[in-house]
Amino acid sequence: PGVRGLAGGELPWRLRAEQSGGGLLLDVGCHLLDRIDLLCGPLTDVHGTATNAASPAQAVEDTVVMTARLQRSGALFSAVWAFAGAEGLDELKFIGTAGSITMAGMGPAGPIKVQLHRPDADANPAQESVTEELIQFQPPPSPYFPLVEAVSAQLAQWRSTSQSSNRAEAYAQWLQVEQAAENQGGGPPAPSVSSALRTAEVLDAALGAYYGGRGDAFWTRESSWPGVKAMASKP
Fold first, then answer.
1. Fewest CB atoms less than 10 Å from the CB: which of 12, 53, 154, 166?
2. In what order do the strands lie in the sheet with 92-95?
3. Measured between alpha carbons, how far is 24 from 206 in angstroms, rounded to an integer?
4. pLDDT band at residue 140, thresholds of 50, 70 and 90?
5. What is the predicted pLDDT for the residue at 106?
6. What's the pLDDT score for residue 163?
């Protein structure tokens, strides 16, 4: 039982909070949040509930439910990561007033399904006709290389242009400039350093209750985690 059939032995680094910062949401779920930020903009009003539903060999969470709002459009976002579940479903779906787009949530492969709903004017105006298209593509050999390359280039630019001898102060100044440009609609194209920080903040907001806060060295106080206490109280 448990995440990926984990039944015993030494835990991999992905499931050790002192090395990964949490469960598999930190390892693979973060990439879905990066994609949401890239395609739809920042998430706000983030709420999350995490639990360890079926993985007694690990202290970190294996299930997370999250809700949020898209800052630009006001649309709602909801997600479920059930890493200990029996069903291997990996799906990201955008639902709008005129159709939907469905793709893999965390995997780089698989087609993109586009459904368009149009009123059927030739029949009953209240009825709709649905057209569906599958977009096939070959995933790149290294799908996350452009992300790493873009963030690395921005960090290199920050180091080369900084006028401050204090690294933390210079970095904070760079982020302020970048975020101001993004807010005006003319900032650097995503992904960016600030978008990576936004994803980290979303993760902390979703997992904060499980760990009793994430602003300290929470990995050193495992016995105090509300999530671990909830596991211990299970019958």
1. 166
2. 92-95, 99-103, 112-119, 128-135
3. 13
4. confident
5. 82
6. 60
What number is the average pLDDT over the span 20-24? 95
Task: Provide mean pLDDT across the span 197-205.
Answer: 93
Long-range interactions of 91-94: CB distance < 8 A, separation 24+? 92/32, 92/35
Q: Which residue has the tokens 């760990």?
A: 211
Which sign does the torsion angle of CA 131, 72, 45, 222 carry? positive
Per-residue model confidence as pLDDT tens digits over 180-189: 666 665 544 5
- Cα 131 to its chain centre, rounded Å, is 30
CA distance 99 to 137: 21
Instruction: Give the pLDDT confidence score for residue 166 in this predicted structure.
Output: 65
Look-up of token digits 């991999």? 12
SS3 per residue for 103-160: ECCCCCCCCEEEEEEEECCCCCCCCEEEEEEEECCCCCCCCCHHHHHHHHHHHHHHHH
Provide the token pair at 147.
């992300």
Which pair of tokens denotes residue 100?
Answer: 């939907």
Helix axes 167-183, 145-161, angle to 10 degrees: 120
Q: Reduce the DSSP state of residue 54 to 3 states and report it.
A: coil
Q: Is 107 exposed, middle or buried (0-12, 13-18, 19+ CB in 10 A)?
A: middle
- What single-letter DSSP state applies at residue 41? -
Higher pLDDT, 211 or 175: 211
Contact 205, 28 (CB under 8 A): no
Other C-beta atoms closer than 10 Å to the C-beta of 207 total: 25
Q: How far is CA 27 from CA 14, 92, 93, in A?
A: 7, 17, 21
